[in-house]
Structure formats: C-alpha cells, structure tokens
Design brief:
Order of helices and strands: HEEHEHEEEEEEEEEEEEEEEEEEHHEEE
Strand content: 25-35%
CATH superfamily of the largest domain: YVTN repeat-like/Quinoprotein amine dehydrogenase
CATH class of the largest domain: Mainly Beta
Helix content: 10-25%
Strand order of the largest sheet: 2-1-4-3
Number of domains: 2
CATH topology of the largest domain: Methylamine Dehydrogenase, Chain H
Largest sheet: 4 strands, mixed
Structural class: alpha+beta
Low-confidence stretches: 362-375
Distance between the termini: 53 Å
Number of helices: 5
CATH architecture of the largest domain: 7 Propeller
Shape: elongated
Length: about 400
C-alpha cells in the first residue's frame, strides 16, 4: 500500500516559493565572479555604517540589492523600495537590471573596481498597519463628521459633530480638553493651521469659525458669505504665509471657494467658476489652489491673484476628493519627527519650505496595489464611519461616526 504524505503546510509552501524565487533570480548567462559594492545615501553623500560588500555577479540584480540594503539597515520586516544610481550618473537602474548587464558588460564599470551605488527611497509616504483600538471616547451628542490631528503632536485631535460642537481631545488619556460651541448647524469640517496655533471649523450653518485650540476660545466673529454649507477647509501653507496673516480657504455647496484672513476676520477673495457643489479644496505649496466639484471638473487657481489657471476635465461623475503628494508636509509645516521647533520665525519659514521642496522633488512612482487585499480591518464602531485621519507620527488613526464615538487606533 502506498504511503500517503500530508500536504505541505503554509510555512513549507512559503519556503519552497522563496527557494524557487531565489533560483529564478540567478541569471545563468552571467559569468562567475564577484563585485564589490558600496552603498551611498543620495541625500547625504555618505555611506554611514554600511560596509563595502562582495556580491556574486549572478545575484547582483536590482531586486536583490534592494533586499540586501534593507537587511543592512535593519528593515527586513518593514521593507522600503529603493532606486539605485551608479555613481556619477542621474539615471537609475531599472527594476529588472543587474550590475553585470547594466554596468560591467557595457564597460561602464569594472568588476575589478569598487562600484558605488547611490540609493534613494522611492516612496515618500508609507502606510503602517494599525491593529488595536487604544481608546474609545464618548462625549459628542450626535454623529462625528470630521476629525483632524494637530500637526504639533499626535496626542491632540479635533472633531466636528452633528451636535453643532467642536471638541479637542487628549488622545493619551481619551478625554476632551475643550468643547467649542458657536455653530448653529452640523460641523462638517475641522482643520488645524500648519503651525497648530489655530483651528478652523465649517458647518451646515454656512459659516467658518476660527478657534484657539489651546484655550478653546473663538477668535473674532464667524466668517460669513457662503450661501451653501461648508464642505472642506484648507490652510495656506506656512512657508507661503505673510507673517501674522494666516489664510484659510473654504469650499461650499454654493459652488464657490472663499479665501479668508483668519486673524483679520475678513474675506480676501472668492473663487467662482464651478457649475456645481465644490466638494474639496486643497492649497498647494507652489501658490496654487485646487478645487473639485460635482460639475465633474478640477480647477487650478492662482492663490495670489485669485484667478483661474486651468480646468481639468475627464471625470464622468462627481469629483468628491483631492489629495496632493505633499499633503503631509504642508499640513505639518516645520514640525517633524525630531520635535525640534526652530527658534525664530525665519528659521520656521526656512524649515517649512525645505521640507516641502524635499517632498516635492523626491523620486517617486505611482504604485500598483498588486494584491488588492485588505491590510487591516478595524472593527469597533457600531454604525457608519464618517471621518478618518492619520496622526503626524503615523502611529495612530482617529475615526468618528454615527455611533457618536471617537476611536483612537494604534499599532
């Protein structure tokens, strides 16, 4: 009687697949031999603590070099995609290249000499999985419709609700710090200024209000002028602001966008041209304002002159949201992971501008979500979820919904 073996386990299948993949990576047409490789950070021009490595030519593919660099930088469990630039060139190696066919065989480099490869990360933003709800805080008397983390610290978050209030929360203790009252309708949008000193809110009452998030007090009176409810808010980037004159843009169901002097409590100008509800406004780092609308178009405006630059067409239905690749650095200005605040106004402006320029010019690509699988499911809300926001450090996600609760999720 034949012996029946049990089917391989998932771990065994993964191990077999990895062996097969490694075997496929070895190009038998490449001659035997090795090459010495030195990795240099493109941003700093230095190798740091990375050693010079001897790599078999048959395994010196771009893909294997990326795995090797991640292991050297202790990132094996959290891989970062890199591009490699042969020293003295501005053209990166292609994803399917290897050092022999791309450099040695054409005579661009010698296998006998050290090959210097400058490396640069391909992705600016990275998504980390969150796995548990660290706090569920109650207090609002109706649906939570908008949330926004402070750019200063992940321990502060603002929320807007159908109960007509804005609340600032301490995410570490799960308690409300301030409850701001003034709106006469649902609060549909909340947004911290890039330096974290101001908080704007917009509501169903067609008004925009400016608050001091540290005291919970309103600054000036309500900003009136819209004839439809407020759909979104976006602050002028910090490095573009006139000192002492922060501005915020509001979009509305009335088909217009209004730009407000937040401290002066007055309107600068209105942008009109859409033929439907303006669903989203974004203020870019180069002085452009971008708007999306139910009229199926995206419009680009000059924020200095208040004039239309371009209309982007092609959508077959409403455009409900916009995202800029530099959103994160614009929202956090001079605040970064070091938590070091520049001493002077000039240094703050310079740091905010430098962060934007670095994010705007870094090498990047549009990524294909190959697996199309859910990364993480976060159960907990008992009804619809209306609002989500990442904290500045990427460690927390805030959510709010129809169950009248704000939930804080952490790694």
């Amino acid at each position: 009687m034949a012996t029946l073996y049990p089917p391989p386990s998932k771990r065994q299948k993964r191990a077999q697949a990895e062996v097969a993949r490694q075997q496929q990576d070895i190009d038998t047409s490449i001659p035997d031999g090795t090459v010495r490789v030195r990795f240099v950070d493109q941003a700093t021009g230095e190798s740091g603590n990375l050693p010079v490595l001897t790599v078999p030519l048959s395994q010196a593919s771009t893909k294997n070099l990326e795995l090797l660099l991640n292991n050297l930088k202790d990132q094996a469990d959290d891989q970062i995609p890199y591009r490699f630039f042969p020293d003295g060139t501005t053209e990166a190696l292609a994803d399917k290249d290897d050092l022999y066919n791309a450099l040695v065989k054409p005579g661009k480099a010698s296998a006998e000499a050290e090959i210097v490869l400058q490396y640069a990360p391909q992705a600016v933003f990275r998504v980390k999985a969150v796995s548990r709800c660290s706090a569920a805080v109650s207090g609002h008397g109706d649906n939570i419709l908008s949330i926004n983390f402070s750019p200063i610290s992940s321990s502060r978050m603002a929320s807007g609700s159908g109960d007509k209030t804005v609340r600032v929360w301490d995410c570490d203790t799960g308690t409300p710090v301030h409850t701001m009252k003034g709106h006469s309708g649902w609060v549909l949008a909340v947004s911290y200024s890039p330096d974290g000193s101001l908080l704007a809110s917009g509501g169903y009452d067609r008004e925009v209000r400016i608050w001091d998030p540290n005291t919970g007090k309103q600054i000036g009176g309500p900003l009136k002028g819209h004839t439809g409810f407020i759909t979104s808010l976006s602050w002028e980037p910090y490095h573009l602001q006139e000192p002492g004159r922060p501005r915020v843009a509001s979009s509305s169901k009335d088909g217009t966008v209004r730009v407000w002097d937040a401290i002066g409590n007055r309107i600068d100008f209105a942008l009109s041209g859409h033929k439907g509800n303006v669903t989203c406004v974004k203020w870019g780092g180069t002085g452009r304002v971008y708007t999306a609308s139910h009229d199926k178009t995206i419009k680009v405006w000059d924020a200095a002159k208040g004039t239309l630059i371009n209309t982007l067409q092609g959508h077959a239905h409403w455009v409900n949201h916009l995202a800029l690749s530099t959103d994160f650095v614009l929202r956090t200005s001079y605040h970064d992971h070091t938590r070091k605040v520049p001493a002077t106004q000039e240094e703050k402006l310079a740091k905010a501008k430098a962060r934007f320029e670095k994010a705007a010019t870094i090498n990047g690509e549009v990524w294909d979500m190959r697996t199309r699988k859910l990364k993480e499911d976060l159960p907990g809300h008992k009804d619809q979820v209306f609002a989500l926001d990442w904290s500045p450090d990427g460690e927390r996600v805030g959510s709010g919904g129809a169950d009248k609760q704000v939930r804080i999720w952490s790694n």
